[in-house]
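Course assignment 3, question 2. Fill in each field.
Student: A.L.
Task: Predict the tertiary structure for the chain below.
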Amino acid sequence: MIGFHKMHGLGNCFIFFDEFNQDLSFIKTPEKIKLLCTTSHGLGSDGLVFIGPPRDAKHHCRMEMFNTDGSEAEMCGNAIRGAAMLFDRKALGVAPVQIETRSGIKEVSFVKVSDGESFYRAQMGQASFDLVRSGELVGEDKRKPLIWNSLTFEPVYVNVGNPHAVIFLQNQLTHDEMKAAGAWLETHANHPRRINVEFVDVLSRSEARVNVWERGCGMTAACGTGATAVAAAGMQKGLFDKKVTIHMPGGDLVIEQDANALMYMTGPVQEVAIGQISSGMAHRLSRA
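Answer field:
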């Protein structure tokens, strides 16, 4: 039987699989990932996360994260807190947990337990603002104006392990408008590898309200890398101080920047359920 853990970070929920003692690579196909993520026929989640042995023995574990459309993400801020929590159970006293991701090594430390949630602080690395060099944004000579429904968007482009287009709103948008604009921006020709989109309402130098359209998922309750990208973009523009609380529909994340421009994210994670894939579902997965 295949065991799993269902966890969420601010309503951004994931199914975690432990690969320390079993190889589950047969699940990592778009068809099987889509099936398991559905609420009607699967387990219901915003993605699948696999935790396994590190490639380099200097680190503690490796995290692979897949979106609901089957695509693999470079990094996920909410999922990495869950990965740290699961590893903590295997190796009590290890701090910080060093986790390999497609975007590099992330160090995650336990902070506290409050109201049934475990809080972790993750080092998210330095933000990069050159997405042209990484191939995630076309050059200025090929870039087209982002005009949607008579609105012109001028994003701040940030990479914090994955690419983001951060939009500081001049006019309020409805949820449906953000959903439609997010889908349009994700796949716009300016963004050859698709992109995550944040809609930001700045409240003060230490607070912002944010809604996120996640690449490969759609609108989500929260996004750890999205919150980090918003903070980095706002700090670059002089809108925020070095510590900012990002309010999202699912709850709050605290983002900080240190003297070396390293970004840190602090927030909760909660285990919802532990279970096993039934024999019937395992058979279906083998045929998918």
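Instructor remarks: The helical segments are 30-37, 77-90, 175-186, 224-236, 279-287. The longest helix spans residues 77-90.
Grade: pending
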